[in-house]
Amino acid sequence: MNREDDCSSPIVTNDLPLTKEMILDAAEQVLRRFGPDKTSVVDIAKVLQVSHGTLYRHFASKSSLREAVTERWLHQCIAEPLEAVVGEAGGSASERLRLWLETLINAKRTYSIEDPEMFMMYAAVTLDAIEMITTHVNRLIRQIARIIDQGIQSGEFKSGPSEVIAKAIFIATSRFHHPAHAKEWMAEAVDVEFETVWNLILSGIA
Amino acid sequence: MNREDDCSSPIVTNDLPLTKEMILDAAEQVLRRFGPDKTSVVDIAKVLQVSHGTLYRHFASKSSLREAVTERWLHQCIAEPLEAVVGEAGGSASERLRLWLETLINAKRTYSIEDPEMFMMYAAVTLDAIEMITTHVNRLIRQIARIIDQGIQSGEFKSGPSEVIAKAIFIATSRFHHPAHAKEWMAEAVDVEFETVWNLILSGIA
């Protein structure tokens, strides 16, 4: 899904029944415009032309709205494009694994520069919404595990517990995709550093 | 060096010539007591019973004082105990590498809990004092490289560029020692997660 599509949805009005997607679209717009600290549920209700009481029936608090907006973003803008990489035909498992990691790393780096409001919200939510983030991370780890399984089946990778190996690979590359390291991604050396970690991982699994 | 020794040095007075160590002792005490935001150079000068002009002749700003205090702490409380691990006699290189990593990780985890003021200052300085932190990290990477060299010489590890491999190992374990991840160290799963990353690293180098 194109990020521009998500971020420029037209303002919805109270002529339509209020769906979760409509609330999240409005919340995302308002959170982007004013930032998480200055946004109130009342602001979001105004954009939707509903009372804040109506909004509270769908989301219990501003933080649950913020979490739901981040969850949708992680799903559409991070997990779905990576799912496509796992499902691609052709190429070796190590090529696919490298492409998967580069897709994740490039997406994070690009969003941190080009969509700083959403990225900062995501970085903040990462510290608080442990359960939602764990679910997202586990989904990504299962994607890596499927690539590992492909490599074990083709004889390219050593046999082993694919989910455990996948988790180790995800954690060992944290420096390049965990939002707490975003500042370090600006350093010139970061691509060379990824290369050295990638070589270490590949010697470990091949 | 015992941490308690560093943190409870007696208040120095102007009867003695002002040394860098005396300034750092006083700065560390005041920074601990009031926190980096509320501490001023004047507060530190008061403890030392000197004018703030005298202090500015040694350190140009509060941030350079804060950086110097952190640098000393990193040297004494992190790098030196690790140096001792590298120099230890006996045991295999993989045992020594594991002990080195565990010593680093345990030190960071212990300080984050038992010395939160210094740890928070260090986490903040990490984002700003890039050059000082890079020097510290490079020192740690050279320590790992010496262990890798020991392992290559004994035939325990594959041949390879030890500094590059050492850097990859340091980065791949960031999740367990980089201060940006301190909150995640409280999770129950963190030891199991380290074990999976350690196994991946060891398959890569052994």
Can you offer a commentary on this structure?
Chains A, B: It comes from Paenibacillus solisilvae. Chains A, B: Keywords: DNA-binding, Transcription, Transcription regulation. The structure is a homodimer of 206-residue chains. Chain A is mostly helical. Chain A folds into 2 domains: 3-60, Arc Repressor Mutant, subunit A, CATH 1.10.10; 63-205, Orthogonal Bundle (Tetracycline Repressor, domain 2). Chain A is 75% helix and 0% strand. Chain A has 11 helices and no strands. Chain A has helices at 3-7, 20-38, 41-48, 52-58, 62-87, 93-114, 116-128, 130-153, 162-172, 174-177, 190-205. Chain A is elongated and about 60 Å long. Chain A binds chain B through residues 127, 158, 164-165, 167-169, 171-175, 178, 180-181, 183, 193, 196-197, 199-205, and chain B through 127, 158, 164-165, 167-169, 171-175, 178, 180-181, 183, 193, 196-197, 199-205.
Write the layout of secondary structure elements.
The structure is a homodimer of 206-residue chains.
Chain A: H1 3-7, H2 20-38, H3 41-48, H4 52-58, H5 62-87, H6 93-114, H7 116-128, H8 130-153, H9 162-172, H10 174-177, H11 190-205
Helix pairs in contact in A: 2-3, 2-5, 3-4, 5-6, 5-7, 5-8, 6-7, 6-8, 8-9
